[in-house]
Every structure is written in C-alpha cells, then in structure tokens.
Amino acid sequence: MIRFDNVTKTYDGQRRPALRNVSVDIDKGEFVFLVGTSGSGKSTFLRLVLREYQASSGQVWVAGRELGQLPRWKVPKLRREIGTVFQDFRLRPGQTVAENVAFAQRVIGKSTSHIRKVVPETLEMVGLAGKADRLVEELSGGEQQRVAIARAFVNRPKILIADEPTGNLDPGTSVGIMKLLDRINRSDTTVLMATHDSTIVDQMRKRVIELDDGELIRDQSRGVYGTQ
Ligand SMILES: Nc1ncnc2c1ncn2[C@@H]1O[C@H](COP(=O)(O)OP(=O)(O)OP(=O)(O)O)[C@@H](O)[C@H]1O
Q1: Which of 10, 21, 33, 77 has the fewest CB atoms within 10 Å around its CB?
Q2: What's the whole-model pTM score?
Q3: Average pLDDT over residues 181-206
Q4: Could you identify the atom of ligand 1 that is nearest to the CA of residue 19?
Q5: Signal peptide: which range, if any (predicted)?
C-alpha cells in the first residue's frame, strides 16, 4: 500500500537531508507506528505519502502509484484515498459536528442523499451519534478528535494518516481514540501514525518504525516505543 524505495528528501536550502535512504514496505491493512525524536523525519515521511513534497531521490509508491510520476492534476484523487488526522484537530469552527463531516463529502461532489446517509453512520461509529448538531468548539478535545476521525474516515479511505493524534489529549481519552483507530484499521484501512506517546505504542504492540536523524533505524513487528 505504501512503499519507500531508497528515499532521500532534502528540503530546499538545507544541507542535511530530512530523510536519508529510507526503504520500507507497508501492506494493505497494516497498523504502523512511526516513532523518533523531534526532527527525526516523521512528518516529512507523512508529507511524502500525501505528496505535499516529492522525494529528492528514490521512489515513493502509494496505492499502486509512483508519486514521482504522478501528474499534479492526479494529486487530489490520490489524497481522496488518504484520510488525515492531526494533533490540533483542524475542524471548522462555527459549524456543527455533522457539517464538519459532511464538508469532506461535499468537496468531492457527493450527493446530498449520500451525505445524509453516511454522515450519521460515521458519527455513530465514532460514538458521537447524539452530538451531530453541536458546534465543534463546544466539544471536549477527545470529542473533537472523534469528529476529525469521522471526517477522515467518511470517504472510506484506503489509508489513514495520523500525526500525533493523541498529542493534546489526556491518557484516558487517548485510549478511547486508539480503540477507534484500531477499529478503523480492522475494517481493512491501513493506518500510519506518527507519535511520541510511548504508553500507547507499548500498549498496542503494533509494527513500529523508528527514524533517527532521517534514517530508518528500526522496523519491529509487535514493537515497543523504545528499545532501551
Ligand atoms: N519545510 C521545511 N523546510 C526546511 N526544513 C524542514 C522543513 N520541514 C522539516 N524540515 C527539517 O527536516 C527535519 C525533519 O523534520 P520533521 O518535521 O520531518 O521531523 P519530525 O520527526 O516530524 O519532528 P516532530 O516530532 O517535532 O514533529 C528537521 O531537521 C526539520 O527542521
């Protein structure tokens, strides 16, 4: 589903690469944690998958496409296959929960009847069935993250990318969010999650890929956050 073939990424004006000769293969339906200290290259890795940036050398394959060969006009279609969730939720204030989730459908041209069906289904799935008409800013952080996950998942993407999704949440709330991501993964969605949350990684025992100064230094199945 995601393959990096000897990928190096050096940002414009930088001498040191943010990623260096990274090769990794992530299959359909896997759940992968991406760990590493701040500045090790995790966000760069995710941004290459989303084709926000292109590799300086090597190849990035996502859902059967080599992103270096992908014409710009096909990028929106690629991104439709990838749901994204961030630490800071990135919801639309002043709009309700249902409107935030429906927006993701509207921008890709789904019909109103389709939206009326899938938005409540998705809100039910994330445990927010009773909160559809609340303004998002009235919700707790954990609930806001559930809205963001509903929005990411409503189009049933092949891949869900989560960049520090529990970074702003307390430990108990984080466990609920992880249960939800685990459920989404079990519906055959590939989940790639960058995190500093060692407790979560140690509890979940999923595949762990560790970056250090742009290099892939560990790839462990049923792994833990740190090796020491
Ligand atoms: N747009 C950019 N332009 C120049 N350098 C960048 C850019 N984005 C990231 N970098 C550099 O690339 C390296 C890797 O950064 P990246 O954001 O991928 O790390 P990270 O592991 O996600 O860190 P964090 O855990 O703090 O989010 C760092 O040295 C960073 O300063």
Answers
A1: 77
A2: 0.95
A3: 96
A4: 14
A5: none
